[in-house]
Amino acid sequence: MESSLEHKYNKYKTKYLLAKKQHQLNGGGVIVTARTADLSMRKFTGAGILLFEEYTNAGNTKLSIILVKEKFPNRHTGINEYTDFGGEIDKDEPHVLAKTATRELFEESRGLINIDYQHLLPLPFIMHEDVATKTNYACYAINVDSSIIRRNDFLTNMRIIDASVSPRLLHFKETIDIARFNVSDIIHDVFRIGGSIRCQDAYGNTQTIKGRTKACIRETIIHYLSNMGGQEYVTRLLDRTAPILNMGELKIVENVIKNMARFGSPTGHTPWKNTVYSHNQHDMAAIAELVKLPGNNVVLVPHP
To answer: What is the C-alpha to C-alpha distance for residues 156 and 35, in angstroms, rounded to an integer?
Structure first.
């Protein structure tokens, strides 16, 4: 028979594990940095980046998120989902999370968006745990200047890369489109629906956002709201029985979230052949093939 102490221990352990399980099933994550967690004790298998942007459409400016559409459909649903720019870690090396995130950003944007990994090193990131494998995915978030990233440029680069027969550029062929999603349009679904979500992009088209990406969006929003006086909005968003936020409240939330690291491009669009690439970040054999082609990229750097 259990002692009173053992019974109490098992009772609270079970309660904790159930709460943890529910949090994980909902895609829970936490903000971690080198200062707040021992990263050497955690197994990371991938990293990525969320691009936020104040996007103006038809004279109306809203905070949006730029996501990329995967070439290969979800094996369970058969749907090509939109996701953050991210992928698997290739090898164990210093600053592997920032290097992986920025390398995947460059490859999955079809060579359009280029950030030196060193610019991400001071920034926090979301740590999303895969419950089944007990592995973690790191996701950074930045705010980019409006209208720097253009869909037509993505599609132009895609056509150029797809025409290449070089096997070294296969990693640049894993995405097929890019789109913006207004935070105000998806925020309630991000907080209240499990798994992938069906929603409208900023152009009114119905799309699907990957479950992992949805979780990273939600935890990023929670982080900035919680640290900048918006805890009451976090509480309401997490409560599925609470009324949804009205337009005025959504605008307040947007104004808080956008106060993340801001990136812009002082040089604008640059031909691939004229861009300097980091040997510690990119597959230089692939870059050697890429610079032979007539595509362009945007080099993003932090605002002073």
So the answer is: 41
**54-82: pLDDT as tens digits:** 998 888 899 999 999 999 999 889 999 99
Q: Considering only residues 105 and 29, tell me which one the structure prediction assigns the higher pLDDT.
A: 105
Tell me which residue has tokens 């980019």: 144
Helix, coil or strand: residue 160? helix
Left, alpha or beta for 227 (phi > 0: left; psi -120 to 50: alpha)? alpha
The larger pLDDT score, comparing residue 138 to residue 33, is at 138
Task: Supply the pTM of this predicted model.
Answer: 0.86
Rounded distance, CA 227 to CA 211, Å?
24
Bridge partners of 86? 48
Maximal C-alpha separation, the chain: 75
Residue 291 buriedness (CB in 10 A; 0-12 / 13-18 / 19+):
middle
Assigned token pair, 45: 């298998």
**89 class by beta-carbon count within 10 Å (0-12 exposed, 13-18 middle, 19+ buried):** buried
> Nearest to residue 27, comparing CAs of 186, 194, 199?
194
Give me the phi and psi of 75, to 5 degrees please: -70, -20
257-292 pLDDT per residue, tens: 999 999 999 989 999 999 999 999 999 999 999 999
Q: DSSP for 218-258?
A: HHHHHHHHHHTT-HHHHHHHH-TTSPPP-HHHHHHHHHHHT
Query: Which residue has tokens 């900048």?
Result: 228
Q: Is the pLDDT of residue 86 over 90?
A: yes
Domains along the sequence of the chain with CATH = 27-182+261-287 (3.90.79.10)
Contacts of 248 (CB under 8 A, 6+ apart): none
